[in-house]
Structure prediction request, 592 residues.
Amino acid sequence: MRSDGSQSAPLGLKIAAACGLLFLHLPILLIFVYAFTTEEKSFVWPPPGLTTQWFAVTWNRPDVWQALSLSVRVAAISTAIALVLGTLCAAAVSRTKFFGRETISLLVILPIALPGIITGIALRSAFSLADIPFSFWTIVLGHATFCVVVVYNNAVARFRRSSGSMIEASMDLGADGFQTFRYVVLPNIATALLAGGMLAFALSFDEVIVTTFTAGQQQTVPIWMLEELIRPRQRPVTNVVAMVVVLVTLLPILLAYYLTRDGDQIAGSGK
Amino acid sequence: MTIAALNSTSAPAILPGSGGMRGALSDLFWRKPQLLLFLMLAPPVLWLGIVYIGSLFALLAQSFFSIDEYSGLINHEFTLKTYGDLFRPANLDIIVRTVTMAVLVTLASAIIAFPIAYYAARYARGRWKALFYLGVMLPLWSSYLVKIYAWKLILAKEGILTWLLAKLHLLWVLDGWLSLPVVGGNSLSVSATGTFIAFVYVWLPFMILPVQAALERVPGNLVEASSDLGASPGQTFRNVLFPLALPGIVAGSIFTFSLTLGDYIIPQIIGTSRLFIGQAVYSQQGTAGNIPLAAAFTVVPIVIMGFYLWGAKRMGAFDAL
Prediction:
């Protein structure tokens, strides 16, 4: 919506919008304060005192490190798989018109459109029917499935913006298909893929609902947090991990935004 | 054709095939684009088709099996008995409770989202626009569990909300609210109100973005024309803005509605012991070991969302996504 006059907004609207944004941000900021509290047993506010000792305690907890390492490995491999599958699918859908194109888009979007619990329990029942034991790879299988859509969305938006005549020009100038891909297509879509990859990583790193069904006994960071929320052991450690998780997911999002901000479709507007 | 004529004296019009395996392959793809398309589509379609659609069908198939009440074993024969169990009063309660919550959460998200989306679409420019955008994106992508945890901290009996209300001498409002049946409880973090607040908070960004996208497309002079023609701000909102924003609201409601229907973590951490569909699915497949009933339960959100998406498509909501 564009208006030529630069009139300012009514006061009521300003207040409502500001309150809405505060409602979105204050709870997350609160996490940062609680990471420094000296209180161990309850969520008392205001914090009786401030300390940094819980960072050291968290640093020395092997279970936190194990969960972090599992999460990073799962997210990295799922992102790699999603990058390949998402780009292939986006290239096919945006370059050519073929029968069933709409169905393919629907197929890609479905894992994220249906509630996560359905994806989770569907995968679990398939694993049990096929006698597949839970492992690192069962987690990756689930994560890669719903990460494809993020890469796909970013790549499709970029393919739509870049012109097909560049590829024809490259072929006319004597480049073969592989050279065209390497020197024309790839540089064009690189930032979109990077942004999509970042978002896929963040999505996988944070996923909990599907993971509870596909992980068995292993703990990713979100599963670890869920355990702590249901059966708290050491609340201050949970506070510190929560703060770190917020910071870790913040960076890829800002970077993805920065990489695609000039386009008509900015990365991350769909999760 | 013309090029061939021009070049007829020097080089041949058709280049010789490129050498080597790579060249041959590249030439093959050029001659047969269908083959390239097939090769590009095969991996993602096979992955999603086998892993995802395959699993979904495995799940649906399970809902037609039944569990033997005495041995606890799954009887692999076609039956509708499990669907009969689904419509027992206790299970119907769960479905009605979840759908009511999803409707309320959707309405509340739409009301809170509208001013933010409207301000961002109509008044925010340049730096402010980017700030608004990130202001919605960062909470959207922040960790889901951390967001729930933050509300656990806020709503706890000893937490910041009680402290704030005590400072404002408004504690009687909270106590009055908590003493109500259904919505009340011991503290907000174990009440249906708490579940509602956490749901609205976690899904709100999913509503803001499509509503903003829909409002961006409304020409500003339409609103001016409406007030020039003598409409009050309220009338302009009702007759001009709201109908044009409606596809965006419906698009956003797809997310808020679907996500509330399937969630089992928020009501488990912030809420009463009364179950939601997601929790019922989780406990049926886990502790109870009744996979057929769990599968039948998941069919409920699928069917509801099927109708919802069908209606949304008719309202043109997908153009706003």
User: Anything to note?
Assistant: Chain B touches chain A through 108 residues (CB under 8 Å). Residues 21-51 of chain B form one domain. Residues 89-122 of chain B form the longest helix (34 residues).
